[in-house]
Design brief:
Layout (H helix, E strand, L loop, with lengths): L1 H34 L6 E4 L4 E3 L10 E6 L4 H21 L2 E6 L9 H8 L4 E4 L4 H5 L7 E5 L5 E6 L5 H14 L6
Parallel strand pairs: 3-4, 4-5
Antiparallel strand pairs: 1-2, 1-5, 3-6, 6-7
Helix pairs in contact: 2-5
Length: 183
């Protein structure tokens, strides 16, 4: 009986040691994945002023982060659809849209006039070298992220189809109410 008890203790201690080892290995990776905040990368305003992406905030309110390009028809359709409702969305939720152009250095001079011609009232930035795009694992545009008031990415979506903006607004309202997004 004592041999069985000692054997039991030995197995338990070995399992505890393994569990501790698993926690040490997995927990840092898990917590890093969980925070999911914006990376610290330099991008430019349309006036060519350099800013760090870690400073992109909305005073505790949600942020839509949209990666787009002037040559991308679905991107333009998405931004047009959001623009039609943007003032109402801001009034109801306080959301802010930050649009990051991934146009390259050859076409970045077209972004400002393009935006002004559309009359969009969003914040616009240039990621001409693609650092922010790479840091956010954006492969194709449009790629839209929703950030909660703490700057944590809570949802993301690629491509655009008519009506996607309605789903996005429902998600924004959930974030404002403090509800989890389970998509």
């Amino acid at each position: 009986m004592i041999v069985l008890f000692i054997n039991f203790i030995y197995v338990c201690l070995r399992n505890v040691r393994n569990l501790c080892l698993i926690c040490v290995i997995c927990v840092p990776g898990f917590s890093q994945e969980k925070t999911n905040n914006l990376p610290s990368v330099e991008i430019k305003t349309l006036e060519r002023k350099t800013i760090n992406t870690s400073t992109l905030t909305n005073n505790g309110k949600p942020v839509i982060l949209s990666f787009w390009a002037t040559w991308c028809k679905p991107c333009i359709n998405e931004l047009n659809a959001i623009a039609e409702n943007y003032e109402d969305w801001q009034d109801e939720t306080g959301v802010k849209l930050i649009a990051v152009s991934v146009d390259d250095a050859r076409s970045m001079n077209r972004v400002g006039p393009f935006v002004n011609g559309k009359g969009w009232e969003f914040e616009f930035y240039l990621d001409t070298n693609g650092d922010f795009k790479r840091a956010m694992n954006v492969i194709n545009v449009p790629h839209t992220f929703l950030l909660d008031g703490t700057g944590k990415v809570v949802w993301q979506h690629t491509t655009y189809a008519e009506g996607d903006e309605e789903n996005l607004f429902e998600l924004i309202k959930k974030v404002v109410r403090g509800e989890l997004i389970d998509e």
